[in-house]
Amino acid sequence: MAPLRFSANVSWLFSELPGLPERLHAAGRAGFEAAEVAWPYAEPPQALASAARAAGLRLVLINTPRGDHEKGEMGLGAVPGRQEAFREGLEQAVLYAKALGCPRIHLMAGRVPRGAARAAVKGEMEMVFVENLRHAAGVLAQENLVGLLEPINTRITDPQYFLDTPQQAAAILQKVGRPNLQLQMDIFHWQIMDGNLTGNVREFLPIVGHVQVAQVPDRGEPGSSGELDFTYLFQLLEDEGYQGFVGCEYRPRGDTVEGLSWLRSYWDRRGHPRTGQ
Asked: Of 31, 131, 139, 261, which sits most exposed with the smallest number of CB within 10 A?
């Protein structure tokens, strides 16, 4: 069984450092071979690409733009009346993905509109999402890119988010029926919404294109105290033959590098990807 490959989410890690280029450099120094960025759009794509190259990193994931942050938007994929803005954001994401050599884009679903009841708008939002995803799949296929759907928990993190369980996401993927759209499994969100991680990992892993990890409930390092046993979960992912990246999307409780002791001990046990040991 091949060891897992880890990616530093530099929107979350190395927040001691001011900008994304500095954080990419720090991730490379800490031993990562890959990185992901939630929203790279404040930096010119070429500057980020050269910072990643200099750090010896490949970029493996970015998100589509949030939309109007001041209006509380968090992605636009399923938001009625925002189809045009979703498509423009997708074009921007594709431009960045190509410049960065990044193969995956998380297609953010977005929030139930303010003042609307989820039950009342769910059908319409799903229709909008399916239509937007079919469009996105075509655009992404032309560039040989993969689109990802990520359920985000509505219990703690984002009560208004439209897509909140793996079951809902898998059903939408089935409706859309495009091979270059896959599931993004953030174990933090899945545990909070549904638990049953062993069963859900085994059921959904065949359609998973990216994994993310954080401890529950505080969203700290996988090695920190909490509900999840990551030694077991990493072994499960290995046993099930997961080939993709595991994104470190957590909130370090102190210094990022000191907090990576859990990863260094994994590399000590399973071999470091860069040294081949």
From this structure: 261
| Peptide bond just before 103 cis, omega within 30 deg | no
87 neighbors 138 (Cβ within 8 angstroms): no
Task: Note whether 142 and 185 are within 8 A (CB).
Answer: no
Distance, first Cα to last Cα, the chain: 15
- Type and span of the H or E element at 54: helix 45-54
* Closest listed residue to residue 204, CA positions, set 169, 161, 255, 256: 169
The model carries a pTM of 0.97
Residues in a beta bridge with 213: 248
Residues 227 and 225: their CA atoms lie apart, in Å, by 7
For tokens 């029926």, what's the residue? 177
Q: Which amino acid is at 176?
A: V
C-beta separation of 78 from 163 below 8 A: yes
State the DSSP string of 179-193. TTEEEEEEHHHHHHH
Q: What is the pLDDT of residues 126-145, one digit of tens each?
A: 999 999 999 999 999 999 99
Q: Which is nearest to 187 in space by CA: 168, 206, 203, 201?
A: 201
